[in-house]
Amino acid sequence: MVLKSDVHPIVGSDDVVRVRQVARQWAAELKFSLVDQTKLVTATSELARNTLEHGKGGRMRVELVENGARRGIRLTFEDEGPGIANIELALRDGYTTGSGLGLGLSGSKRLMNEFDIKSETGRGTTVTVTRWK
Amino acid sequence: MDRIPILKMGDCLLVTIQVDMHDQLAVSLQEDLTDQIAKHAARGVLIDISSLEIVDSFIGRMLANIAAMSRVLDAQTVLTGMQPAVAITLVELGMTLPGIRTALNVERGMELLRGYIQKDDELQENDGSEE
Description:
The complex is a heterodimer. Chain A is of the alpha+beta class. Chain A has a single domain, classed as Histidine kinase-like ATPase, C-terminal domain (Heat Shock Protein 90), CATH 3.30.565. Helix content of chain A is 37%, strand content 34%. Chain A has helices spanning 13-29, 34-53, 87-90, 104-111; strands at residues 2-10, 58-67, 70-79, 114-120, 124-132. Chain A has a 5-stranded antiparallel β-sheet, covered by helices on one side. In chain A, a hairpin with a 2-residue loop joins strand 2 and strand 3 (70-79). The relative contact order of chain A is 0.21. Chain B is α/β, with parallel strands linked by helices. Chain B has 4 helices and 5 strands, in the order ββαβαβαβα. Chain B has helices at 23-40, 57-72, 84-93, 106-130; strands at 6-9, 12-16, 44-48, 76-80, 101-103. In chain B, helix 1 runs parallel beside helix 2. The longest helix of chain B is centred in the C-terminal third of the chain and has 25 residues, at 106-130.
């Protein structure tokens, strides 16, 4: 169940910093431990940068979600960019089509509790991640 | 555009990163530091990240680049003050920063740097005497 939701654009380098701060704020409000906050914010940074660089910009939806007694934060990164041709390959550690280290997707997956990626060539990519408290 | 200040202390350069860096700021720090190393013939670089709340793969790569570039310019780099939560996250992310020397705080970082510079000097002296 979604208790609260908000959408933030990712169109420039400053927006990556801004959505990091949004993620931090939501995690702090939910009283995540410092390590969990750091993991969430770091994954946010990686995924927001992907949206900007590979997806040519998009948006992040942040949601406060509830599943029974558990509460968590769900982040959805959406873009209408070129999409990912081979998701399996893109999720592999060290694989990159850009100039990075290829840790963004695979690393974010490790930092979060739930990870889902949908992509269609020419249509865009949606990455949904959740971290439970 | 804002810049991260670089302080000169003897033959070392000291950088304290205190802001939530956007990517361009990290890139300009790389350029500024290499310029300053060459300009002052610096032997050591100390980067304190105790105020940084996250280090993602981009910042991690920037730090690794700085260490590599400094080495090529005959300067040693020590990274100090990483927060425990940042260290945990960084390793889980898959970055172990190989090739970067670290110290828990600035004081120990400076000691480490002094030691490296001294060892470097001794090595160079020995090389010279053999010729």
